[in-house]
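Researcher: Next entry in the queue.
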Amino acid sequence: MRNRKKMLVLAIVALVLVLGVGYAVVSQVTLTITGTAAAKTQDLKVVYDGVNSGTTNGDTNKVTAISSPDDSIAATFTLTDMVLNTPAELEFEIENKETDVNATLSLPTITQNSKSGFFSISFAYKDSARSGSGTYSDWTSGTKTLAHGAKATVKVIVTLTNTPIQETDSSTNITVSINAAPAA
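Model: Structure for this entry, 184 residues:
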């Protein structure tokens, strides 16, 4: 019986040691999760909103076509029967449709004016186009910030500055570019 008791005590001690060592070996596991996340790359959503107008000294008949389709990045116009030193004013409303990113608008650049000796081009800018508030200011230098969700109007002013002598000088092709970039 004594042997049996010793055997039982030894078996219990051995069992406790085995369980203790086994428990220590499997007592902790570290689970990890790794991955990556990337934002969708897309163009800044600054567009013409379809609102535009054009006059030549109050005469809308000389602006035979003006278009800036809603949600477009391209606008067009056609002027006819221009008179010396009488500017044609073409207004194009721009909207920043971003919900959380302001846009920096570059100074408009004349990338094409095939008869620059006869036609001059200048620019003006007005905030808050839709509400009609704000006044135009000449845009001759610098950039403009267009807040997210905001609208502004860019005015392109085309003036016949010299009387064309030859028929080939009586019209010009005009291209104006305005870059919109995310504001820092």
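Model: Helices lie at 2-25.
Researcher: Noted, moving on.
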